Amino acid sequence: MLDGSSPKAGIRHVLDPLLPGMPLDQIGQALASAYDALVSEGVPEHLAALVRQVKHTDLDVPPKSGRLALVVEDDPDVRGLAETLLDETELSVVGCDSAEKALTVLRKSGGDVALVFADISLAGQMDGIQLANAVATLWPKARLVITSGVAPERRDEIPDRAVFIPKPWRALDVLVEAGRAAKEAPPPVA
After folding, report:
1. Please, which residues have CB within 8 angstroms of residue 83's CB and are 6 or more apart in sequence?
2. Who has the most CB within 10 Å: 10, 28, 59, 149?
3. What is the Cα–Cα distance from 64 to 87, expressed in whole angstroms?
4. Each residue of 50-103: pLDDT tens digit?
5. Where is the Response regulatory domain (predicted)?
6. Contact predicate 84/94, CB 8 Å
7. Residue 88: CB atoms within 10 Å
8. Which residues, 6 or more positions from 26, have their beta carbon under 8 angstroms from its beta carbon?
9. Domain 68-183 belongs to what architecture?
């Protein structure tokens, strides 16, 4: 926080007025404000700037389950294949062709995202490595799977907890990662 207090103290300040009888829309607004404070204060500036640049649009998130698999791939055929494959799991699936669109989904439903399956090369200004770093920082409970047709040149920039699956990937490898993501408990609500 700007006054030197911890981000948790700032969240408490925002959430203090939340009383048992408060309408859900006001609770949602307070939580969004707390989230924005965390993003702007607890994230390296270059990642926070990228997240702020993402335009808020309404992307449809299918209601299959409470947990999501986010497929981020600029090739529509490969994205469609991954979406179809992941649709066979208990996760709902959302596909995006760019990291910017993926961040829009994450800002809207980040707590529900169990798996981010992203190619390194994407449409838009951000690549899959930048997206993976943003996800690792802002949504640390999401399982990260990075894929590419060539070995990543910037392997040291990929988050340690991310799994790399080379293209062409095997369906079984993707399903194993989706299964692991679905079994992991969602983050607690505090």
Report:
1. 71, 93, 95
2. 10
3. 9
4. 655 554 444 554 444 579 999 999 999 999 999 999 999 999 999 999 999 999
5. 68-190
6. no
7. 11
8. 18
9. 3-Layer(aba) Sandwich (3.40)
Strands 92-96 and 163-166: unpaired
Residues 6+ apart with CB under 8 A from 145: 115, 116, 117, 118, 162, 163, 164, 165, 174, 177
pLDDT interval class at 120 (50, 70, 90)? very high
Report, in this order, helix, strand and coil percent for the chain, each rounded to 5. 45, 15, 40
pLDDT at 179: 94
Distance CA 96, CA 161 (A): 22
111 contacts 187 by C-beta, under 8 angstroms: yes
Residue found under tokens 């699936």: 93
Q: Are 94 and 59 in contact (CB under 8 A)?
A: yes
Strand, coil or helix: 10: helix
Tell me how far apart the 2 most distant CA atoms of the chain are, in Å. 55
